[in-house]
Write a structure and sequence with these properties.
The structure holds 2 protein chains of 2 kinds. Chain A is mainly α. Chain A has 2 domains: 121 residues, no CATH class; 134 residues, Outer Surface Protein A, domain 3 (Alpha-Beta Complex). Chain A is 47% helix and 11% strand. Chain A has a 3-stranded antiparallel β-sheet, with helices on both faces. A two-stranded antiparallel ribbon of chain A has the order 2-6. In chain A, helix 3 packs across helix 4, helix 3 runs antiparallel to helix 6 and helix 5 runs antiparallel to helix 6. Chain A starts with a helix and ends in an 8-residue tail after the last strand. Chain B is an alpha/beta fold. Helix content of chain B is 38%, strand content 22%. Chain B has an 8-stranded parallel beta barrel with strand order 1-2-3-4-7-9-10-13. Chain B has a two-stranded antiparallel sheet with strand order 5-6. The chains are: A mainly alpha, B alpha/beta. The interface between A and B is large, with 48 and 49 residues. Strand 1 of chain A pairs antiparallel with strand 8 of chain B.
Chain lengths: 255, 282
Amino acid sequence: MTSQSAFRDALLDPSKAVPDGLEGAAHSPAGKRYSVYRNNVTHSLIAALQTAFPLVRKILGAHSFDSLAPIYVRAHPPTSPLMMHYGAEFPTFLATLPQLSKLGYLRDCARLDAAMRVSYHAADASPFDLEWFQQLPPDQIMAQKLHIAPSVCVLRSGWPLFDIWRFNMVEGAAKPEMQAQDVMISRPEFDPEPVLLPQGAAVWLDHLAQGETLGDAYEAAVVSAPEFDLAASLAIAFSQGVFRNITGSEHVETS
Amino acid sequence: MLDSARRFENLPASPGVGYKPQHFTDLQRDPGRVEWIEIHAENYMGDGGRPLAQLRALSERFALSVHGVGLSIGGETPLDREHLTRLKKLCDWAQPASFSEHLAWSTHGAEFLNDLLPLPYTEKTLTRVASHIAQVQETLGRQMLLENPSSYLVFAESTRSETEFLKELVNRTGCGLLLDVNNVFISATNLGLSAQAYIDAYPLAHVGEIHVGGHDEDTDDKGAPLLIDSHGKPVVDPVWALLDYTLAKTGPKPVLVEWDNDVPDWPTLRAETERAAKALAA
């Protein structure tokens, strides 16, 4: 009998012998026929990583990426049939490889790729009522709680993450210079986009996400970055569809 | 639920295509003979965004087949209840005319191996697969279609032919069948059997859908032909001939053209569906 454990064990390990009890035509040994499954499994998982981590693959080059991917695939096979989630440990895995230790920013680049995919599949948001917000009396604005759309993700990086993304993915973009950058991934409609956040905006969004009022989140942002510009941050958030609706004293939620 | 959608009780006995997002606009502007589409269930299990929006739009015009590739019905371990719940959610929302899965396994323990792996055909596996199919049909509240695999090898322990195995699964569970004639051609070539004899022995009365697709050609250790199911090329003439042979026995059935890798432009794929339409009209 060939158990599924035995069949599986040799799939991701080419050094292991073909399991017993498998045959080709006319009772010949299975040999290369078993390798079809080996190839299918390994190649399909590598292809999934290629799709999921375009920025990392651009930085490393296709050849290096494709030679590292099998190591990850063997160490971290998927744990769910939803391949849209495959590769969650890839950023950490990259950071553990000694041969990549000089590319300190690679882990954050992998996190950016992962965040783009999560954003792509995130739940749709009910449209934000900008007109209502703009008609609020000034004294009420800071009491509002702004809800952040599920497709929004903020990455705080010690590297020039946004500039690295642009340099690799946008033709003609300038070479990155060393600085810390906060990047927001958002999805105005269906296509996630990285946006460079101004100083303090990541803290501001984080506090809003925790359910704080606009006023409290503003205070927190100013503490972290005295130059925090609320109007500019609101403008970015509105243009990127960051908010999904508002709960405030005079607003009735519709969803 | 997709409340704006036209409801289709059954897939039409006409050509369908495996839906690829790059064909979204072309498919609506110029569907040719295509009346229905098939999607891989797992690609539409996200929470929102473009995949679900496209599905919503397409289901207003095309009948829908939801085709699972991750349920591991042939697995030794119990079905993944979480995944079954996701399937139910998708089917309840999309209300497809058909749901199908594979006679294969892909999950082992906590691992998902992302391929359709083979199983021996024995009394023990028959009992297990039948109980898994019954569980799926009960959970989804609908009949499912089960697809025959493409085989590269056989298990020494098998005591039944694939067609006997499928026949018995139909008897025990009341499931329908998805007959992939490309898989039949691949398996027959790889195992030195007759594809027509397979069709002759197959329980054709229970076929709810037919697949055709492309495959790659290789050789085994002894230089014998080894065909590999790749869905990355046009359907070859012997597979079209096998479709003709099958349809002559069954009458018109929903025929799906599968092209999942190296996806061509829409006119190329549409031409394949026109060939399927010709087979259906013969």
